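user: can you give me the structure for this one chain? tokens are fine.
assistant: on it. calling the predictor now.
[tool input]
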Amino acid sequence: MTENEISREIVDACYSIHVKFGPGLYESVYEELLSFELGKRKICFSRQEDIKLVHDGLVLEKAFRADLIVENKVIVEIKSIEELKDVHYKQVLTYLKLTGFKLGLLINFNVTLIKTGIHRIVNKL
């Protein structure tokens, strides 16, 4: 699957979750629900995966923890907050740069319409 095909599946799964449950749940609940939906679709993913950072010979094995890595191509960062800040977008971009992935999705479930809570972030490498 391409990054775009993967993201379409993720967005569709997020939509079905949000239609049923709406905003207001914990991020961990949305992560569990999204994982369940991706599993039903036979899409490979890992949860809370530690990602390393290498700097001038120093290796930090646990520099950050990705909420979801889907098909080893797309990073998904899940939020359930009042408002996304610039730092949230930059966080995902940093994750993309560290992993070399091209696409990340920043998803805030705490919105009235889920389409306003889904943001694509592209690593231009």
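assistant: here you go. The chain has one domain: 3-122. The first helix runs from residue 3 to 21.
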